[in-house]
Design brief:
It is a single chain. This protein is α+β, with helices and mostly antiparallel strands and 183 residues long. The protein is 24% helix and 37% strand. It has two domains: 32 residues; 147 residues, Immunoglobulin-like, CATH 2.60.40. The protein has a five-stranded mixed sheet, with no helix packed on it. Strands 2, 3, 4, 7 and 10 form a five-stranded mixed sheet that branches. A hairpin with a 2-residue loop joins strand 2 and strand 3.
């Protein structure tokens, strides 16, 4: 009888461990994925108190690498400071019709590539809704993301934007880049 009590106690503890671990895994999965995607237009859209719009999209191909393209996406974000706090961990990605995903380049050279593609020669930094030099509430600030993608993606790409505090919700924009010559 005593052994049966220990077996029941071990089974209850094992079940409790599975429930707690499973709950945390489900919570982490929910926060890591974009389950509810809202289609946004040229005017942009709001999500959790922050208005996001695609300001400009430029693309360029080099003559010796015509199968690849650099795409620069300039986002404009606007919202009050408390709402922007929920946008930390901002994720930006490009997707094609088959839902393949391209993430922004993050390297020492990406800032230089942004300056080359941008007509104004400015690099506004990556998507960070709480920059140290944030404008007052209600004013837009810009962020730049650069992607290296197959050239055929230029015809039908979608830009998806979300953040730690917005997931499982995300915004999705159709993008049509302005082509620039990189000679």
């Amino acid at each position: 009888m005593r052994h049966l009590l220990w077996i029941i106690l071990a089974a209850v503890l094992l079940l409790a461990n599975v429930v707690v671990a499973g709950w945390t895994e489900i919570t982490d999965l929910r926060r890591a994925r974009e389950w509810r995607v809202v289609q946004a237009g040229a005017a942009g859209a709001g999500l959790r108190g922050v208005h996001v719009r695609v300001d400009q999209v430029w693309a360029g191909t080099a003559p010796d690498l015509s199968e690849r393209a650099l795409v620069l996406v300039r986002l404009a974000l606007r919202g009050p400071e408390p709402a922007r706090q929920g946008w930390t961990g901002c994720d930006v990605s490009l997707r094609d019709a088959a839902d393949r995903v391209w993430l922004p380049l993050i390297s020492a050279d990406s800032a230089g590539a942004v300056r080359v593609l941008s007509p104004d020669g400015e690099d506004n930094g990556r998507c960070n809704p709480v920059p140290h030099d944030a404008p007052p509430d209600g004013q837009e600030f810009l962020s730049d993301q650069i992607f290296l993608v197959p050239a055929e993606l230029l015809k039908g790409a979608r830009l998806r934007v979300s953040a730690w505090g917005t997931r499982p919700e995300a915004l999705e924009f159709p993008v049509k880049p302005v082509l620039r010559d990189l000679h």
